[in-house]
């Protein structure tokens, strides 16, 4: 059978972005009543001046999140500081055995059949199982937890009615309030117990704030990581020589993950609102106007990334903006990186001769905020699990 020509991210308008960086890098878009920022330097400027460009109440297409992702300092700094005491790179590093075990379990399930849908069988289950573990959800509750999470984040193609979503949100809330009160009575060695006790300047998180953080972990950490994993398989399909090189040299995996994040950012940008009249790239921005940083364009800015359209796992430095920049820089970046490094290294080792199933059309994720695919069927030869 002849292979159908296939460009999974053809809808990402790299040529348009290139033109915008040259001709109109800070562009007023009347459809969104705001500005789109295409160049790296301008993007970095917006994200590093939160006193001019606010994060509060402006997650487009999403209900307002009272979590600190949608807050400005000083409240943001205080909550982030409390959580950062617990959610440390060291704590994340200690998840290595759990992540490794989950990756093997997922691959054990598909290995005998010699085919899988990367998105359904690997990319979504891995991050949600790790988040469930972090939140102390026991094995018997994990399927329920996952169905609430899919509903809450509208992830995985879930298309619940608003009523079903409200019911699931309520169940999620009741479940975690119950867990919180159990942990208050009987602290354990887990993230939630440590969050309950963490404090800055004598202030601890309230139940409502703790619940918000549980929700934030889901909303910020689930679909984003799932799409990173899915996009990695798309890259391996597009650049089979890269997959082969990584099989021979797993030590190059961290660089490969960064390049996948740069070229196919699962989070396509960040949004702010101007707090006062200001100028950016010679344009007059008015107070209350929306300013959207287009990370996908900034990540291809030729002034920062030489030969930006070349996929190069050895690119160094590789200061992409996919995890944001500045005070809101992704708190979960070490976790996303660790899951991707471990998951992809083991997958490449255990699955040989990976071939995309050419008979099944690949559907891109239909969202301006996420770059990814909704399905990615592959066949492979499984090696024995040592
Ligand atoms: C913030 C991207 C995975 C937790 C952010 C921001 C970006 C981002 C761009 C900043 C948004 C802004 O400035 O408005 C990503 C990507 C991920 C990923 C691309 C995966 C590839 C995770 C994971 C977690 C997480 C796994 C935790 C389980 C957070 C939190 C914030 C955040 C808590 C808020 C930080 C703050 O407001 O101070 N993420 N994220 N993220 N992310 Fe991630």
UniProtKB/TrEMBL annotation:
Belongs to the cytochrome P450 family. SUPFAM superfamilies: Cytochrome P450. This is Cytochrome P450 YjiB. PROSITE patterns: CYTOCHROME_P450. Transmembrane segments: none annotated. It comes from Dictyobacter halimunensis. Coiled coil: none annotated. It holds the Pfam family p450. Gene3D superfamilies: Cytochrome P450 (1.10.630.10). Keywords: Heme, Iron, Metal-binding, Monooxygenase, Oxidoreductase. InterPro entries: Cyt_P450, Cyt_P450_B, Cyt_P450_CS, Cyt_P450_sf.
């Amino acid at each position: 059978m002849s292979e159908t020509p296939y460009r999974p991210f053809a809808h990402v308008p790299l040529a348009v972005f290139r033109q915008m960086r040259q001709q109109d890098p800070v562009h007023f878009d009347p459809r969104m009543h705001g500005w789109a920022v295409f160049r790296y330097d301008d993007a970095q400027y917006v994200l590093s001046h939160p006193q001019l460009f606010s994060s509060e109440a402006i997650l487009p297409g999403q209900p307002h999140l009272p979590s600190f992702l949608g807050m400005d300092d000083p409240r943001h700094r205080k909550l982030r500081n409390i959580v950062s005491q617990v959610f440390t790179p060291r704590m994340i590093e200690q998840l290595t055995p759990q992540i490794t075990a989950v990756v093997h379990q997922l691959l054990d399930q598909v290995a005998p059949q010699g085919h899988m849908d990367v998105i359904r069988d690997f990319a979504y289950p891995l991050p949600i199982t790790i988040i469930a573990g972090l939140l102390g959800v026991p094995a018997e509750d994990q399927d329920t937890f996952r169905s609430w999470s899919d509903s809450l984040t509208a992830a995985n193609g879930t298309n619940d009615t608003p009523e079903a979503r409200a019911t699931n949100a309520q169940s999620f809330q009741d479940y975690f309030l119950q867990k919180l009160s159990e942990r208050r009575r009987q602290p354990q060695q887990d993230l939630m117990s440590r969050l309950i006790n963490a404090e800055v300047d004598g202030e601890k998180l309230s139940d409502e704030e703790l619940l918000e953080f549980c929700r934030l972990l889901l909303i910020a950490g689930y679909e984003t990581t799932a799409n990173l994993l899915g996009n990695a398989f798309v890259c391996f399909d597009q650049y089979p020589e890269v997959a082969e090189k990584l099989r021979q040299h797993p030590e190059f995996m961290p660089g490969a993950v960064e390049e996948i994040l740069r070229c196919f950012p699962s989070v396509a940008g960040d949004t702010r609102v101007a707090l006062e009249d200001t100028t950016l790239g010679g344009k007059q921005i008015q107070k209350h106007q929306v300013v959207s940083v287009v990370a996908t364009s900034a990540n291809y800015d030729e002034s920062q990334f030489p030969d930006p359209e070349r996929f190069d796992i050895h690119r160094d430095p590789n200061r992409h903006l996919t995890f944001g920049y500045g005070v809101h820089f992704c708190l979960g970046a070490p976790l996303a990186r660790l899951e991707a490094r471990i998951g992809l290294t083991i997958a490449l080792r255990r699955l040989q001769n990976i071939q995309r199933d050419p008979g099944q059309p690949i559907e891109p994720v239909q969202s301006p905020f996420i770059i990814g695919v909704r399905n990615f069927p592959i066949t492979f030869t499984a090696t024995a699990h040592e």
